[in-house]
Amino acid sequence: MIVVQMNERSSSLDIARVCDHQERRGMQIRVVPGRRGSTIVCEGHSETDLELKKLPSVKAVSRTNCSYPLASLEVSGPQGPVQIGRGLSIGGGSVAVMAGPCSVESREQLLETARGVASSGASVLRGGAFKPRSNPYSFQGLGSQGIDLLLEAREDTGLPIVTEVMSPEDVEWLAPQVDILQVGTRSMQNFPLLKALGRVDTPVLLKRGMASTVDEWLQAAEYILAGGNSRVILCERGIRSFDKSTRNTLDLSIVPLVKSLTHLPVVVDPSHATGKRHLVAPMSLAALAAGADGLIVEVHSRPEEALCDGPQSLDLPAFDGLMNRISRLMEALEPEESEWGLKVAM
Ligand code: PEP
Ligand code: MN
């Protein structure tokens, strides 16, 4: 595979010239527009082409066997944080904490929880409206009515919102409304969904499939990037293992591993990873100490009444306590660990 990085000011004619040149050499090409110039990914066998490197419109030409060149740190270099609306960025060295209920259940439940997490310092409100439930008789979410409630909660608290999208057909109408679209673990390899997310520019929180390798996860991210959406945030949420004493097994070592492989920010979901409320705080702190760019935590104003994932949801005082511990941890880590990109965030 050959990856051609065009200059920021290259014209469509320059791009067409490179494409034409590569196609004549039997390569399949894909042009991916980018903020700092287009990238042309060329698949097929060819010698490194010295002629291409000489073109003034071409910034760099690299030959790689990497199956996710756009996500790769080595091939594409650092790309900076992912911008969420105007005020927030994820991956820039500060810690983003997304918090809220597993599911939007009612106006009262959502507003109470949203106000609580906002006052404790959360940076994003989470809440599922389209729920991927294992059982067809379980609560399936409020659908578009749940989205309306999330919009109201955003208006009320000023917090950006993240919510799951399950169907490719829902991407187009949801993308302009919400701040981050979540791809759940069960959808990580829903390729029509990933392609639809590549066609919008709303940031995407891509959860790792519960039985997916790091390579499959990064190739899933590549689908979105290859479609032209550069705003992808990865989320480790635990993988299946033999031991059912926790709901999943939090694969924490992949945080520094994935950060060495990709420029994309990585956040951790300690709630689905453990399934147990008392394990959420320790795993949150461990994830940040390992270099995660943020967390996504389930919080419910009345966890005992939750329609989904109550046993792993923190109540509001517990979330407030966690946020205090996070700020103290970040202060403690900052002096020695700043080369990991950790800074005092709150
Ligand atoms: C969720 O965030 O509520 C959820 C369903 O997560 P996951 O896809 O990780 O199971
Ligand atoms: Mn959940």
UniProtKB/TrEMBL annotation:
GO terms for molecular function: 3-deoxy-7-phosphoheptulonate synthase activity. It holds the Pfam family DAHP_synth_1. Keywords: Transferase. This is 3-deoxy-7-phosphoheptulonate synthase. It is an enzyme of class 2 (transferase). The lineage of its organism: Bacteria, Thermotogati, Synergistota, Synergistia, Synergistales. It comes from Dethiosulfovibrio marinus. Its EC number is 2.5.1.54. NCBIfam families: DAHP_synth_Bsub, PRK08673.1, PRK12595.1. InterPro entries: Aldolase_TIM, Class-I_DAHP_synthase, DAHP1/KDSA, DAHP_syn_2. Residues 83-319 form the DAHP synthetase I/KDSA domain.
